[in-house]
Amino acid sequence: MTNDYMFRMVLQRDKKTLIKLISSILDISLSEIKDVKIENPIEVGKTISDKEYQLDILVLLNDDTYINIEMQVENYNNWPMRSLSYLCRRFDNATRGQDYNLIKPVYHIGFIDFTLFEDHPEFFAKYQVRNAKDSYLYTNNFNLYVIELNHTSMATTEDKTNHVDTWAKLFKATTWEEIKMITKDNPSMNSAAESIYMSNADISILEQCRAREDAIAHEKYQKELIDSLNETIANDKAIIADKDAIIAELNEKIKTYESKRK
Fold it and tell me: Contact at 8 Å (CB) between 148 and 169?
């Protein structure tokens, strides 16, 4: 499920799983969820082009709230700006001439498999717009949630009560034995397990999952190559700068010597 294509397919194909996941993350009862609709569905097994590289899931909850859900494994060191960009785009949902008070609340829920801030690791972080002095809430319509899959051990009592840590473990599971153990203690997740099984049995989905893994590996290789080249260029510039400094120093000495000769 950390494969973003598989993640999307499971949640797109299984409405029950999507509803239960939203219920856990937003801490709302299932009875409060009347309907969920994926606003950007893709055809099952469809090849993802470069223009559709991002596999975020845009959900309209109860016709009055937008939720953007995303799975990200690789750390490209741009998550804060990227997630904010996604959130801001969706927050600008007022139609022309509409009163701004009618803007629908938005959430960006990011599942990431790395530590966002090394000096501040956290399992489930909730960010909002607040007063810098006293943390007074500016609005509760603008919400950015980050769930670090590699920090389930830091889950709070509230996280565990809402089973957010269990969802994280399910998404990180790599064997059917792990999934069976998780669903054994959480039968409400049987639907999610069944959907994962069915999606893994679909050859067209597996092919796209492998294609996504290849694309991510290629992108990672390109980034490492570019970083290496930039480091080499920086080192070369430093060497040239040192040589320029030495030459400048020698020129000064030559000038001093010649002035003394005169």
Answer: no
